[in-house]
Amino acid sequence: MLPFMFATGIESSSPTIGNGRIRRDQMEECGHYRQWQADFALVAQLGIRTLRYGVPLHRTWLGPGRYDWEFADQAFGELRRLGIEPIADLCHFGVPDWIGNFQNPDFATLFIAYARDFATRYPWIRLYTPVNEMYVCAKFSALFGWWNEQARDHRSYVTALKHLAKANVLAMRAIVALRPHAVFVQSESSEYFHASSPDAVDEAERRNQLRFLSLDFNYGRPLDPVQREFVLDGGMTPDECRFFEEHALCGHCVLGSDYYVTNEHHVEPEGGSHGAGETIGYAMIAREYAQRYGLPMMHTETNRDQGPHGDEAVHWLRRQFAVVRALMRCGVPVVGFTWYSLADQVDWHIELREACGSVNPRGLVDLQRHIRPVGVAYRDLIAAWDGRIAAVDPAARPGA
Question: One of this protein's Pfam families, by short name (predicted)?
Answer without folding.
Answer: Glyco_hydro_1
